[in-house]
Amino acid sequence: MYGQMRIIDEFYSENASVGNLLPCVPLSQTLPSTLFFTAALAAPFFSKTVARIYLLTVASSPLLIAWLHIRKCV
Prior knowledge:
There is one protein chain. The chain is an all-alpha fold and 74 residues long. It has a domain at 33-74. 73% of the residues lie in helices and 0% in strands. Helix 2 packs across helix 3 (48-70). The longest helix has 23 residues, at 48-70. It starts with a helix and ends with a helix. The chain crosses the membrane at residues 21-45, 51-70. Keywords: Membrane, Transmembrane, Transmembrane helix.
């Protein structure tokens, strides 16, 4: 708890070091991955095959977790 208060106090103090600004990332680098992620989220609403794959993945994940615990992998 004390460590958190020290960090907050240092942040609001006048002598706190100023962080460096990060360089801007061009839209050409972020847009393709954003579109791909959005398409993956929207795909089950437009394709029954993709919806079935998503459902099977979600339904089988507890079995995979159990298998990993049985095999002592986790």
